[in-house]
């Protein structure tokens, strides 16, 4: 354990030395104390995880290119790790806060995250990424505002709200973690929280108005339509219709999206198919028949210090094998500045949500059925939106999802792809 801590400290010092934090941009300093505390989100007393006594945690407000220095003190009884969902980590992956790239903060210790909201605007969030801590709290919103003098593609809003919505359980997160570790599924959630509140409500004061297209001559009539339920085709069409505004300004003179990604020739295609096998009598989840097993040593440390026997490089197939699933600490290699096309093939009867930590990518296609090279003819190679998370819809048979990844980093350990 002592050697592990020494390695963690050493790699943090080494990598911090080459961290390219821009001294010409403003710094924002935060001190967070992570503690246990009583919360009542669904009217039942629970042990929550608080940040500076708050549930949800404090909101981070910053401006494009600001440097964020966040000193986190862990007063829990177990290691704690925070991930910054949506913030890009360019040559800075050891700050991303996911297992494999960042050491967890031991109890009664602290760690300072050094981040930069480089060339970004928008709404993001942070959350604890290990030990099922997210089911107890320690999450909050991040808002990156546009730099002064750089316009945004909409009029100033009458109001601005951060909405954190998600499922919630009355059961303690320790117990739910034990259920998952035993190879069983957790039950359905007990309720929905919006900004940390359930049945006791969270309200937003707004004025009534109707959205009306400027080129429409028809008046509004009839009742408000209901939301989608199992209308998969409608949902896919909605996702495909989200486009990038090619006339809008951005946080910098050359905003992301202007790289003409549609003209790039990919050098490699990876097809990843998810599955839910039972391995050694326990319910597991796998990608291309491999169910990932966490190693005792973080993968970033093993990669940097060339520690053998920690993970298996390139043992996970790049296409589905449909063979028996097995447990392994598998890592898929890639090359520096390689442009990769990744296809997620969802064969389950639930929606799958995928996130690539520290990166953004272009969702160029989404459709039902088995993906084939002919599917590329339906790609949007002009104005798709760059994202860090996307969902794979499902039908009674199958659905497919395609990505084109524009990686900025060189090491395979720099990119962690996980099922949200």
From TrEMBL:
Signal peptide extent: 1-23
UniProt family annotation: Belongs to the multicopper oxidase family.
InterPro entries hit by this protein: Cu-oxidase-like_N, Cu-oxidase_2nd, Cu-oxidase_C, Cu-oxidase_fam, Cupredoxin
Name the UniProt record assigns to this protein: Plastocyanin-like domain-containing protein
SUPFAM superfamilies attached to this UniProt entry: Cupredoxins
Species: Cucumis sativus (Cucumber)
Molecular-function GO terms, alphabetical: copper ion binding; oxidoreductase activity
Domain Plastocyanin-like, residue spans: 34-147, 160-205, 296-391
Keyword Zinc-finger (UniProt): no
Keyword Protease: no
Phylogenetic lineage: Eukaryota, Viridiplantae, Streptophyta, Embryophyta, Tracheophyta
Pfam family, one: Cu-oxidase_3
Keyword annotations: Glycoprotein, Signal
Domain of life, per lineage: Eukaryota
């Amino acid at each position: 354990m002592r050697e592990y801590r020494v390695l963690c400290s050493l790699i943090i010092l080494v990598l911090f030395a080459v961290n390219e934090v821009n001294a010409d941009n403003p710094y924002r300093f935060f001190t967070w104390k992570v503690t246990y505390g009583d919360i009542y989100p669904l009217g039942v007393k629970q042990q929550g995880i608080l940040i500076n006594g708050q549930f949800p945690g404090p909101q981070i407000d910053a401006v494009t290119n600001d440097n964020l220095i966040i000193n986190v003190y862990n007063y829990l009884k177990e290691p704690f790790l925070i991930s910054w969902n949506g913030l890009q980590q360019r040559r800075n992956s050891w700050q991303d806060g996911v297992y494999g790239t960042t050491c967890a903060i031991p109890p009664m210790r602290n760690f300072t995250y050094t981040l930069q909201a480089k060339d970004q605007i928008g709404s993001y969030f942070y959350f604890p990424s290990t030990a099922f801590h997210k089911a107890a709290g320690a999450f909050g919103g991040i808002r990156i505002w546009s730099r002064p003098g750089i316009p945004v593609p909409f009029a100033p809003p009458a109001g601005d709200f951060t909405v954190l919505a998600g499922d919630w359980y009355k059961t303690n997160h320790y117990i739910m973690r034990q259920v998952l570790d035993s190879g069983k599924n957790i039950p359905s959630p007990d309720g929905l929280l919006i900004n940390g509140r359930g049945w006791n409500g969270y309200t937003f004061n707004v004025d009534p108005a109707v959205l009306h297209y400027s080129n429409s001559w028809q008046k509004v009539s009839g009742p408000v339509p209901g939301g989608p339920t199992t209308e998969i085709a409608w949902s896919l069409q909605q996702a495909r219709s989200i486009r990038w505004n090619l006339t809008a300004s951005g946080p910098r003179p050359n905003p992301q999206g202007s790289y003409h990604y549609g003209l790039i020739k990919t050098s490699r295609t990876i097809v990843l198919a998810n599955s839910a096998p039972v391995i050694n009598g326990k319910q597991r989840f796998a990608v291309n028949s491999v169910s990932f097993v966490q190693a005792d040593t973080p993968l970033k440390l093993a990669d940097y210090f060339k520690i053998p026997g920690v993970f298996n490089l390139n043992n996970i197939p790049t296409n589905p094998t449909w063979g028996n699933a097995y447990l392994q600490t598998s890592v898929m290699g890639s090359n520096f500045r390689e442009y990769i096309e990744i296809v997620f093939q969802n064969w389950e009867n639930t929606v799958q949500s995928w996130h690539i930590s520290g990166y953004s990518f272009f969702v160029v296609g989404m459709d039902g059925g088995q993906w084939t090279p002919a599917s590329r003819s339906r790609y949007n190679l002009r104005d798709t939106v760059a994202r860090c998370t996307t969902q794979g819809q499902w039908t009674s048979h199958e659905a497919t999802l395609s990505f084109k990844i524009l990686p900025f980093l060189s090491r395979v350990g720099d990119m962690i792809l996980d099922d949200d």
